[in-house]
Design goal:
alpha/beta; about 35% helix; six-stranded mixed β-sheet; about 350 residues
């Protein structure tokens, strides 16, 4: 902020001038001087802030009864200069302007508030960010968890969805919070036809505007699974080809991924955190603490369309060769890779994601 000698040339108005008159006068003014009649009159700060928010780019000067103690407030409200009496000592003004370099609220200037600084610093350290967000959202609901994740400055987030049995709940929550969020769908070439139809139905219903189909490369399929039957002999290699490798490529464009995983789904997920880090990338699991009843209640309350195979007894739906009906009372994911010593495809295991990239 400049310290100017009186009298500054420009349009001069008392801070008691109605806002619309001030805006009209500012329209063609290169310099606008707002005169404070009393130290305690806050109208000048409000006028300056409004003018800046509405696009005034001329010079704003504070005049009259203003004090050095108000220097930072004047600057943050949008004033460029202060008109001070001849002979007035500039040192107190300079000291007040330099006394603090941290602010806690956004204003018309470009100074970043402390909470944005902390969040930006944490974003460069995923483990620290996950710990910060877990503490911040300890008792939060799913929508507030998503809002907290989306509020991290510069954090690019995508959603990972299988468009399976319970996918509608997470996607509805995302659509309510930020519908333009990219949704990654691993198009393995082995999905049930009902899943592909459901993907379109649900995307249209929720207004999802950026659903991305991610596939293995043609070279990978030709060299690794030319007969499209690798699932018969090596389910792990099949998942690696059709899910883990494509997922690694797709995930590289994001700082974090939102998933629909829940602790009740399987023993491997019992200790699932809401925010975690896999291979240096943030994972957001807003439904981690939800029960099967919570999912059902939410889906019913929101009248969400169900995957067509749910009524046939499929509780967790993946590729057709490795998905079967779940027995009554059994683990929700017991129908995945039934009869095989395998419980996860690999995209949530961390180390395998890194090795496939």
């Amino acid at each position: 902020m400049l310290l100017l000698e009186p009298t500054v040339a420009g349009i001069r108005l008392p801070v008691s001038t109605p806002q619309d008159e001030v805006e009209a006068a500012a329209g063609g003014a290169e310099t606008l001087v707002l005169e404070f009649a009393a130290f305690r009159d806050g109208r000048g700060f409000s006028l300056a802030s409004i003018l800046r928010e509405r696009g005034y780019r001329g010079r704003l000067v504070a005049a009259g009864h203003v004090l050095p103690d108000q220097a930072r407030h004047l600057a943050r409200s949008g004033f460029d200069a202060v008109e001070r009496p001849v002979g007035d000592d500039p040192a107190p003004w300079a000291r007040m302007l330099d006394a603090f370099d941290v602010v806690y609220q956004p204003a018309t200037d470009e100074t970043r508030p402390a909470w944005r600084r902390r969040a930006a610093a944490a974003a460069s350290n995923p483990e620290r960010l996950a710990a910060l967000l877990n503490a911040q959202t300890r008792d939060a609901d799913a929508v507030d968890i998503l809002r907290a994740a989306f509020a991290v400055p510069g954090l690019k987030l995508g959603v990972l969805s299988s468009f399976g049995a319970e996918a509608a709940v997470l996607l509805d929550l995302v659509a309510r919070t930020r519908p333009q969020t990219p949704v990654i769908f691993l198009e393995t070439g082995q999905h049930f036809l009902q899943t592909l139809q459901y993907r379109k139905q649900l995307s249209d219903r929720l207004g999802l505007t950026d659903v991305r189909l991610v596939t293995p490369t043609a070279d990978e399929r030709t060299s690794i699974d030319p007969g499209d039957d690798l699932w018969r002999t090596d389910p792990d290699a099949c998942c690696d080809l059709r899910k883990v490798r494509p997922m690694a490529r797709a995930a590289a464009g994001f700082d974090g991924l939102i998933t629909g995983r829940k602790r009740y789904q399987a023993a491997t997920r019992l200790t699932l955190e809401v925010f975690e880090v896999l291979d240096g990338q943030l994972r957001v699991n807003p439904l981690a603490g939800w029960s099967a009843e919570d999912i059902e209640d939410y889906a019913a309350a929101r009248d969400l369309p169900r995957h067509p195979l749910v009524e046939q007894g499929y509780a967790s739906i993946g590729c057709w060769p490795c998905t079967s009906v779940v027995a009554p009372g059994a683990d929700a994911r017991s129908g995945r890779w039934s009869g095989v010593d395998k419980v996860e495809c690999g995209i949530h295991l961390g180390a395998r994601l890194a090795s496939a990239a």
